[in-house]
């Protein structure tokens, strides 16, 4: 797992499609959904941690772009 698209595909396996319209909000909602999947034991740490890292990196990028 290396990209935001990969995280979207992971969520898609569970029937979770996220599109709010603003990229930052999409990423935040994906984080919530990912955490719920992990808390409920549907995904293990080997999928959860890389996906969470990708989402945090993408969120940081969006914050930096919005400041410019």
From TrEMBL:
Domain of life: Bacteria
Alphabetized SUPFAM superfamilies for the sequence: YqgQ-like
Pfam families for this protein: YqgQ-like
Record-linked Gene3D superfamilies: YqgQ-like (1.10.287.760)
Protein name: Uncharacterized protein YqgQ
